[in-house]
Amino acid sequence: MTTVKGFTFAARSAGIRKSGRLDLGLIFSATPARCAGVFTTNKVQAAPILVSAPRVAAGLCQAVLVNSGNANACTGETGLRDAERCGRLVAEQLGIDEQLVAVASTGVIGQPLPMPLLEKAIPDLPDGLSADTVSDVATAIMTTDSFSKLSSRQGGEGQVPYTVLGVAKGAGMIHPNMATMLAFVVTDACVEPDFLRQALRQAVAGSFNIITVDRDTSTNDMVLIMANGEARNPELVSDTAAGQEFATLLREVLLDLAKMIVRDGEGATKLVHVQVSGAADADDARQVAYSVATSNLVKTAFFGEDANWGRIIAAVGYSGARVDPACIDICFDDVPVVQGGLGTGPEREAEATTVLKQAEFAVKINLGIGEAKAEYYTSDLTYEYIKINADYRT
Q1: Distance CA 158, CA 339 (A)
Q2: Which domain holds residue 320?
Q3: Active site (catalytic) residues
Q4: 326 burial class (0-12, 13-18, 19+ CB within 10 angstroms)?
Q5: Do residues 277 and 244 share a domain?
Q6: d(CA 80, CA 146)
Q7: Domain check: are 245 and 277 in the same one?
Q8: Phi, psi (rounded to 5 degrees) for 360
């Protein structure tokens, strides 16, 4: 994994997870970095969100401490004090202002942080800081994930080069605005603060906000970007070619991570790209894509590798969008199963069933009444999803 100038990483096992696996991570910038964040829209928000959001809003961040195995959510004043205490311990060890430390947690809700374990482990983190151990942090933040999630891009071609690097976690409770996921992006690019916030919001809208696994939204979700300027490039601003390149690279990194999250959806065996075109306007296109991507009947058909287009056209019809049934076309990849609102016959369905046996495929829906488009990424719904979530706490 590519290194990023001025950023180092560390992870260790604090003993929060009974398995003894890595469960505590630290991201550190040698200098205070400009930052921006997007946080859960759930009205029940965990202590680390309440502590970190105001600090990120102030515009500078130098360190992020993140733990898995315990969400520190619904823990009252004790949880707030514990989150603040964790940030303070990091600041003391690194010799920085505690207001420059963001804290994040993921795991079981309703249990207090095991502070004796954290108070013992946090002071050891700085000694392990290294430029090439971001993969350890990606592992430390996993909960029900089956693999770690990292992505990077290089920018500044022909000028001053810079790097955009992201790590994320998420597999269950995945839904837009936001889901059970954490994502941390670091870049050595110099980016104008307002543009950094704008680029992050737009990148999230085109990545994490177009994915779903199970329609649940959690209490701890955070996407944080830190830009420390160590690449020494001319400041990137909006409405320039260089700024557009940065925004594109950031979206590509987040979309990579978002697709990994859906691919790793709890129990999932399919990654499905729902593509809607021909809608009357953008809102209608989004409504249709959302309706199809979140339908449990559609998702179980994906698992069963059943080209049951009736479930899809029904989800289109109840989406609330403007539709003309006689204008609807549906394809699995490039195999048409509906044209003009009517099925194309058993031979085409047999071809479509072959498409559904793939690990990744597209469902293409053309409403035929306009020019607007939208997309979603979803997974199938499997027996394993129920098993994982039935005994999550045990």
Answers
A1: 48
A2: 271-390
A3: 180
A4: exposed
A5: no
A6: 30
A7: no
A8: -135, 135
